[in-house]
């Protein structure tokens, strides 16, 4: 079997194990069975500018990832960290920074494999590092409209300019990062580490790196100008001609998941019983909206929570604050949590995750509440 075939099969194999996708698909089948007359309106329920923006970003960030440059840079720096605390602080800050522009899941795909590779060559607490990297991408990705799917949806749905979104979210990210860095310093001992350079790295592909970076800024400008669909078509055409293997490695299942979330959440939001329940929550009260967003994210993940709440409130900033806070806590709060723990290759990783994440949610939800309503 050749490399191209393997590249195509890998996403399909991942899709078969994507239980979140199958749950959304099963919900859609049930909704079709109960109200088949609405089937023709389903395409109108999808926010296509958001889908186009997500598609282009996935292609470009996959190009950066497969160029191998960030892996080499990361490995070079990790080998020079003197202690496990310094290594943890570096990885947390790196993951947070990468997630602001490369999206939270791509940041994990870069940082976590490097971290897991340290298990065989050092005594570093790898599982704990991966958990904190998940926290870091949830925190860092909250800053920009392209950092995570919920921000991308809200910025496109309400047509918020890039710089305006960043300015609005900066206080939230600071509230996230300061306690996270303190917790990181506490959770790691400061013992010296010895690492042998034995981890395999991707080969460097400078042409792919330069192409991806050259297209990145124009694509962001196009998104900000509300031309995401046209820009995504251009990006897809260029990579189809020049680097088809990148397209074969893109996480297309994430696009399908996002489309299903739009359809499912908007159909559910139209249900009379759901409307009646949500109306009783009095979401016109900002405090109710905040706590509802945090709580719902724990149950259905923060991306569906953002889509659902956008049907009932135009306060995009408060929704963004609530669902980004909701990414912490239980593992289901954010898709990034699930991705990170799956890559950790440790059956007990979820215990470590919740031991730190649940108390962290209590702290930051309280701090954000004080910031929103008392300052």
UniProtKB/TrEMBL annotation:
Subcellular location: Membrane
Domain Citrate transporter-like as annotated: residue spans: 33-310
GO CC terms of this entry: membrane
Membrane-crossing segments per the record: 20-42, 48-66, 87-112, 162-188, 208-240, 252-269, 289-312, 318-341, 353-374
Signal peptide span: none
Membrane topology: Multi-pass membrane protein
An annotated GO BP: transmembrane transport
Keywords: Membrane, Transmembrane, Transmembrane helix, Transport
Name of protein: Anion transporter
Organism encoding this protein: Nitrosospira lacus
